[in-house]
Amino acid sequence: QPKHDGLGINRYRTFRKYLNFDLATAFRCVNAGLRNSAIFSAESALDESIWPYTGESEKATTIPRKPEDTGVKVYVQCFILEGTGRPIVFRLLPDIAIPKYASAAIVTDFILAQPNGTTSITADSFFGSIGLLQSYPSQRMTMALSQNSIQDLASVISHELKFHEFRVYSNGPIMISAWLDNKPMICASNEF
After folding, report:
1. Are 44 and 77 in contact (CB under 8 A)?
2. Residue 111 and residue 121 in contact, taking contact as beta carbons nearer than 8 Å
3. Whole-model pTM?
4. Mapped to the 3 state alphabet, what secondary structure does the chain carry?
5. How do residues 104-156 score in pLDDT, each as one tens digit?
C-alpha cells in the first residue's frame, strides 16, 4: 500500500476556511511587477482572454469560442519588448467588477496606465468606438468597430460595396475604412 503524502480532504477544508485569495490584489501585484520590468515598444494591442480557473467563484465565466473557455475573463494590453522583439503582457484587468466593465472603461483604464504616453493602441470590435477616438484625440488608436457601430455609421456604408471592395472616409482627424468581406467591416483610426 503506497503512503499518501498529500493533504487529506478534511484537513484541506479546515485549512481552506482560513485562506482568502483575492483576485484583484493578485492582479495589482502582477501589474506592478510588469510595469517596472521592461522597456516597451510604441505599439500595443488590447484583447480579452480567459485564464483557466476551476475554483469556486462567481467570478468564473465561460466563453465557448475561446481556446480555454472557462475561467476568469481578463483584459490584456500587450507590447513588444524593445531589444528582444518578444511579446509581453503589460497590464491585466480581470473582469471581476460588479457591474461588469464597459468596453470604454477598459480602454480608458489602459490609456491611463500606459508606460509612456506615445503608445499606439490597436483593439478589436469589442473595444472599438468612434466615441473613444473622439474622447482621446492625442491617444493614437486603431479599432475595429462592432456591428452596433456599423449601424451608427450607416452613412459610411450607405452605398453598395462589392465583395473585397473598400472605401476610406475622413471624419476630421479620424480615418474610417469600410470593406465587404463575408460581412461589412469597419475600422477607424486617429493615427493619420
Report:
1. yes
2. yes
3. 0.70
4. CCCCCCCCHHHHHHHHCCCCCCHHHHHHHHHHHHHCCCCEEEEEEEEEEEEECCCCCCCEEECCCCCCCEEEEEEEEEEEECCCCCEEEEEEEECCCCCCCCHHHHHHHHHHCCCCCCCEEEECCCCCCHHHHHHCCCCCEEEECCHHHHHHCCCCCCCCCCECCEEEEEECCEEEEEEECCCEEEEEECCC
5. 888 888 888 776 566 888 998 888 888 888 888 888 999 998 766 656 565 55
